[in-house]
Amino acid sequence: MSDAGGLEGASSPLSKASRTSKTTSTQLEIDFIFVLGCPGAGKGTLCRRLATDYGFYHLSVGDYLREINASGSAPKLDALKRLMERQDLVPAELLIPLLKAKINGQVEKGFRAFVLDGFPRKTDQCIAFERELVKRYKRL
Description:
Elements: E1 7-9, E2 31-35, H1 43-54, E3 57-60, H2 61-71, H3 77-85, H4 92-108, E4 113-117, H5 123-134
Parallel strand pairs: 2-4, 3-4
Antiparallel strand pairs: 1-3
Helix pairs in contact: 2-3, 4-5
């Protein structure tokens, strides 16, 4: 993995035009691409290629959750550990704040386009993501 947090992206956040597009207002235009599919379908391969070829920030949600779980650094870590041990889906109220913090951190580093690998898995996750991130950023 090329970046902390179980995420992959090109090494320089300012090297691609897709990471630097801004609007003239106080809101940034951020692009999100969701890549869904069955295990082994090639989601990770596609996301890595998009990250490399177009400068998107690759956020593998499963890898990120596993890294948080292993590091012991997340709020509500006990709940996350229990869910992951049972291989249950992480509910939106626990997942979205984690994703929001990671994405916001990468936006501060200059990324303006994200490819989310394996997310959303449920409709409530999609609705919560839109509610929490679209209110900050202009595009989804």
